[in-house]
Amino acid sequence: MASSTAFSLASLSPVNTELSVTPIRTQSRTVCDLRLRNCRSKRNVIISASVSFPAQEVSPSQRRPDELAASIFSKVTQTDRGVTLTKEQHLQVAELTSELSKYCIDSPVTCPLIFGEWDVVYCSNPTSPGGGFRSGFGRLIFKTNEMIQVVEAPDIVRNKVSFSALGFLDGQVSLKGKLIVLDEKWIKVVFEPPQLKLGSAEFQFGGESEVQLEITYIDDKLRLGKGSRGSVFVFQRRNPTV
């Protein structure tokens, strides 16, 4: 909020000097009676000014975790999971996620909050989730509707990307994987070959794949991750606890 400071200068009272001349006649000359009177003006001149200072944005390092999370969501919402963001906006998200990761609990991979259904709401590399479907050419044909990750106890991960092909044909790509804990922050997921459903047709394609992901922050609404190649992911819980 912009702060405003108003101040007034001291009142100024100008002094007017009135000079009156009354002639007095003598034998050969006129003597002037000079009367000098000072009169003070009753008018007061008040000068006031208002100075406005521009609002200063609070730096990420001065924000609470909930404020950082809210800022992250506000920046990535309705951006097609980061696709439409500019380079500068990606850097802003990176700064916020880096600051929020400082509040990460110890050993997040063992935290029960990891389980549940999560929306993938942002990725710094748009082709990381969804593969070719999210490439520049793929997005011309396939419009992503949902991108969901489900983590089930004790070690099952399911990824699902639903889309519309050419604007009229609904489809879905799903993967099932096994979660393997590498250390207190890193996990590895080994996925089976993906399943593709396009209209009424359903078939399997490709082979097995694996990814490694560091959990950099987690709470009941938000999860942050970083891939082995540095890609930043933001997950939002679909059914957060109240």
TrEMBL record:
Q: What is its main location?
A: plastid
Q: Which residues form the Plastid lipid-associated protein/fibrillin conserved domain?
A: 70-235
Compartments reported by the entry: Plastid
Question: Cellular component GO terms, alphabetically?
Answer: plastid
Q: Sorted alphabetically, which keywords does the UniProt record give?
A: Plastid, Transit peptide
Q: What name is this protein filed under?
A: Plastid lipid-associated protein/fibrillin conserved domain-containing protein
Could you tell me which species this protein originates from? Ambrosia artemisiifolia (Common ragweed)
